[in-house]
Structure formats: structure tokens, C-alpha cells
Amino acid sequence: MSTLNASFVQNMSIVRPEYFFIIGLSGIPYSSYYYIFLFITYFIAVIGNSIVLLIIALERSLHSPKYIGVFNLALADIGETNAVIPNMMKTFFSDSQYMSYNACLANMFFVNFFITLQSVTLVVLALDRVIAICLPLRYHALLNNTVMSLVFLVVWAFNTSLVALSTSLMTRLSICKSNVVHNFFCDYGPVLRLACNDNSINVFFNNVIATLFLIVPFCIIVLSYMGIFFALSKITTWEARLKALKTCVSHLLLVGIFFLPVIFPFIASAITPLTPNARVISTSLSFTLPPMLNPILYVLNTAEIRVLIRKVLKNRIVPIRRNILK
């Protein structure tokens, strides 16, 4: 009975601020120019990923397991940039840097959800390359459009459940140390540090999510490419090896762009303490550069997409030239 009373008292004493103050960059002159740069990256990311989505959706020849993964990655990129940048622009170019408690939790959920979706999608694309190179004769038997669609259906359901659970657990915290968030959005870690009651469960889930969606995917991708390189070493001719390896270039670049900006701050902070502004800049770049660069890399490194774009441009340009000549 005393335990129930203690739990009731604890629930009654939970403090939730009406608003959070999103501090972003502080004490840096001309910081507005940096936010304009982020908005430009947002604009390029949305246009680029929208083009990739349209090309894959409209072109039947790209309705394959690999491009279902690319489609999902472009969708995650658009979701992440829309969860971060427009809200940031509204906050820092309006009269107030305040965000309501519920809006903060919603922002936290969508940013974390799309980041985890990007990470898992890169793992699925790595496994696609493993099967294509190591088991080419069984590729269509093991991986088809139905299987890939079911995989991503499970990924969306699992990620939604886990991120929703971790976000909902924030409601059990009393935010009474401060309402100032040292980031440019409602980040899980900075908000968690504002709690003045027991946050061990939240820390546990934060570590689980970091492990499941950062450490484990990175390790799986590394192991996948070890298997790919081992399979390539058995191929007798260098021409065949390079031809197979070229199909992995785009994915390897995407993996580097996604994981390096995330890993670098951890390495840097282990060497020397990072200032709040340095953390904000590194976090913002890790969230905005990959969605901008991903569609560019796929267009430049994927022959099928390049051919389709040339075909579309040719079909548009030829009638215009004929009209001009007339």
C-alpha cells in the first residue's frame, strides 16, 4: 500500500514545463548565415529525393528489390529533413525560440524515427549487395519485391514501436533543472539531462536505441563487406571484380556519409571536450548533409537512373529544338 502511495505521489509531483527554449548556436556572430546554409541543404535534399522517388515510382524497370530500398532511403531522407529544418527555421527566424512540451516530444519522435529508418535501410541495402554478389544464382529466389516490401513493413513497425516507447517514457520525467535545450531541435539527450528525478530507464532505452540503430548496423555492414571482398577474391579476373565492386560504390559512399558525421563527434569528444556550439554544428551537419548528398550520389553512380534522366531530357529537348528550327 505504501508503494502505491509513493508511486501516486511521484506521479502527482511530475513537473512538465509548458515550453522548452531551443538555444541553438549562441554567442556566434552571423550565425543566421549558417541557418541559411542549412535551409539551402534542405531545399536541395527535398528536390533531389523527390526526383529519386518519382523516377523509381514511375519507371517499371526500377521496380526491383534494390530500388525498393533506395525508395525507402529517399523517403527517410525527406522525412528527416522535414522533421528538422522547417521547425528550426520557424524557431530561429521568428520572434521566439520557444517550443511547447508536446511539440518537443513530437519533434523528438519524428527526428529519431527517420534517423533509425535511414540506418536500418543502409543495412538492408548492404544485405542486398551481399546476396547479389555472393549468391547471384539464388538472388531472385531469396530476394524479390514481395520479400523486400515485407522486410521494410517490419522495419517501419519495429522502429515506430521502439522510438514511440522511448519518447513516451520522457513523460515520466520531471523537467525541473531548466527548460533550455542546448541543440537546434528537441534532442533526446539534452532534454534527458534536464530531468531531476530518476531517469535510469530512459538512459537504458537511449543506450538500447543507440546500440540497435548505430553500433549494430555499422558492424553488420562491415561484416557484409568483408563477405563481399572475400567473394570477390575468388573471382579470377580483375575486370569481373571491378564490375561487381562498382555496384557497391554508391552504397559505400552512403554508409560513409551517414556514419562518419555521427562517429566523428564521439572520437573528438574523447580527445577534447566539445563546446555546445561545436556539438550543435556537428549534429546539424550529420542530420542535413546525408539527405542532401544521397540522391546526388545515386544519380551520379547509378547507370540506370542516369540513362533514364538522359532519356527524359532528350525527349524534352528534341521537340523544343524542332520548334525552334521551324
Written overview of the protein:
The model is unreliable at 1-11 (pLDDT under 50). The protein has 326 residues and is mainly alpha-helical. The protein has helices at 2-12, 31-58, 65-92, 101-134, 139-142, 145-168, 188-192, 200-233, 238-271, 276-301, 303-325, and strands at 19-22, 98-100, 180-181. Helix 9 (238-271) runs antiparallel to helix 10. The protein has a 3-stranded mixed beta sheet.
Order of helices and strands: HEHHEHHHEHHHHH
Indicate the low-confidence ranges by residue numbers: 1-11
Task: Please outline the major beta sheet.
Answer: 3 strands, mixed
- Percentage of residues assigned to helices: over 70%
**Number of distinct beta strands:** 3
Q: How much beta, percentage-wise?
A: under 5%
Rounded Rg: 23 Å
Measure the end-to-end span.
Answer: 92 Å
Helix-and-strand structural type: mainly alpha
Mean pLDDT: 84
Rough shape? globular
Strand order of the largest sheet: 2-1-3
Oligomeric nature of the chains: single chain
The number of distinct helices, counting runs of at least 4 residues, comes to: 11
Membrane topology: Multi-pass membrane protein
Subcellular location: Cell membrane
Pfam families: 7tm_4 (PF13853)
Protein name: Olfactory receptor 1-like
